[in-house]
Specification:
By secondary structure, the chain is mainly beta. It folds into 4 domains: 56 residues, Beta Barrel (OB fold (Dihydrolipoamide Acetyltransferase, E2P)), CATH 2.40.50.140; 61 residues, Nucleic acid-binding proteins (OB fold (Dihydrolipoamide Acetyltransferase, E2P), Beta Barrel), CATH 2.40.50.140; 58 residues, Beta Barrel (OB fold (Dihydrolipoamide Acetyltransferase, E2P)), CATH 2.40.50; 66 residues, Winged helix-like DNA-binding domain superfamily/Winged helix DNA-binding domain (Arc Repressor Mutant, subunit A, Orthogonal Bundle). It contains 3 helices and 18 strands. The longest helix is centred in the last third of the chain and has 14 residues.
């Protein structure tokens, strides 16, 4: 079966005036237009291509790389809004539609939004939605506390930042636990901090517990070397100053100093820390 909205590895069946026809093991075939045909090929070769609908709503394949594939999330830019909906640029000639019914708020041309791409079963078309919650499931969780996970930042709220966890679940990073600049659409690593009885998930951008301290200690040590062996931070420095300079919490900073001091790598004085 040739899967619409995804990559397919297909066999070159025949060469025609409009392009190559590629097929799968089930006897289905699809056109690879001339502009996407490789310079060197032979009948019987296998090609990995992306399948979507052309302007006439016919399945075709392309060698172009889309920014998003079916059943995934991504940050995309609106390039047109008309009476049908908003259209996103996703790296292909034909833009990706977000119907008005799938817009959490009315989309604006030139703005960027995190969306989910899926196959509409009624129209058999690839469309996108930024009503993200309906594509996320926190009832059946395949994660546990302390797990390292992949995150997509979706929006900022009064508590912090909503994130998508492993392309499946919804989580929250609290604002007072963010020690570096992040923005909507960022793909970053995180760690599961807490899973609540109501299945809400708290996420940290730093490793949980002692495992986070050693990497932080190394960061401080490398910055000390870069700064000529002196850093004007100490245990009396404000949390905001530490966060701005080192992108870590004051708690992790103090624990890291303890490790470096114990290893005799630093000395601590009232005006700051020095390489030993």
């Amino acid at each position: 079966m040739i899967e619409l909205g995804n990559y397919n590895t297909l066999e070159i069946l025949r060469d025609t005036s409009v392009g190559l026809f590629l097929g799968d093991e089930e006897g289905n075939d699809v056109l690879l237009p001339n502009k996407y045909v490789p310079k060197m090929y032979e009948i019987g070769d296998m090609l990995t291509v992306f399948c979507y609908l052309d302007y006439d709503e016919r399945p075709i394949v392309t060698s172009l790389t889309p920014y998003i594939i079916r059943n995934t999330f991504q940050l995309l830019k609106v390039v047109e809004v008309n009476n049908i909906g908003a259209f996103l640029y996703w790296g292909l000639e034909k833009h990706l539609l977000v119907p008005f019914s799938e817009q959490r708020i009315k989309m604006q041309e030139g703005q960027w939004y995190v969306v989910f791409c899926y196959l509409d079963e009624k129209s058999f078309r690839l469309v996108a939605s930024n009503k993200l919650d309906k594509f996320l499931d926190n009832e059946e969780l395949g994660i546990a506390i302390n797990d390292e996970v992949n995150l997509i930042v979706t929006r900022q709220n009064d508590l912090g930042w909503d994130v998508i966890i492993n392309n499946k679940h919804k989580g929250l990073v609290y604002q007072n636990e963010v020690f570096k600049k992040i923005a909507v659409g960022d793909n970053i690593k995180g760690f599961i901090k807490n899973i609540r009885p109501d299945h809400k998930i708290d996420v940290s951008l730093q490793a949980i517990g002692y495992v986070s301290v050693e990497p932080a200690a190394n960061i401080i040590y490398q910055i000390l070397k870069k700064e000529g062996g002196y850093l004007n931070l100490h245990d009396k420095s404000s949390p905001d100053e530490i966060s701005a300079r080192l992108q870590m919490s004051k708690k992790i900073f103090k624990k890291s100093l303890g490790i470096l001091y114990k290893d005799r790598k630093i000395t601590i004085k009232p005006d700051g820390i020095y390489l030993a």
